[in-house]
Amino acid sequence: MKRDQSPVLPGDGATDYERYMRTGALLGLQRTPAEMIHRDELLFQVVHQSTELWLKLAASELTEAVAQVDAGDPAAAEVLLGRATLGVRLTTDQLEMLTYLSPVDFQAMQPALGNGSGAESPGWKRVRSLSAQLGRAFAGHLAARGIELAALRRAAPADPEHRLAEAMLEWDERVSLWRVRHYQLTLRVGGHAPAGTPGSPANMLAKLVGHRFFPDLWQARLNSPADNSGTARP
Q1: What is the DSSP letter of 228?
Q2: From CA 71, how far away is CA 55, in angstroms rounded?
Q3: How many CB atoms lie under 10 A from the CB of residue 18?
Q4: Which residues make Cβ contacts (< 8 Å) with residue 1, sequence separation at least 6?
Q5: Count of CB atoms within 10 A of residue 224's CB?
């Protein structure tokens, strides 16, 4: 006997899948063929709209991670930060779709973009703000417990503060890798002159490649003496 698959959820759509996922609204967010001035606008919008969705998820995880650090639970924060980090990795991976755009094609579609810039991404603005909040929360967590940053370098691998610090470095690195890939694409697809060329839009992107959300953590790794004993901190 066939199970009744009639939709029971409220909303538009012939199935509960469509209603829950709101596929009608989601798939209607892209410009229609009649609106497009270049067929690759669909590719461009799908990459960037899905990026905003992944960043929305990453921001949600970062928000909760900050709350967990404030609550004194670095282990829970580490798990949440790992999820956010994977989201950024996926946004980086999907940039590969943009390599199918030639500079000529990208230039042809630019009038449709107006004065828009990736720097205006609400997702990235939110992620940057939350990363700063996480850094402050972690610094406060360590200070309240009298833990020096240098001690984390010598902590046991299972130490919760050590593990969260490592997760924060991984987050920092993944965001940096996204910036590197984005910079490369501006040269390959955008047709911009390399960094160092006066007036090139790539100059700012190149500067951001070296930016770190948690410079104190990176510095502590460099300045701490090597210790492979794996012993817990005092």
Answers
A1: -
A2: 24
A3: 17
A4: none
A5: 15
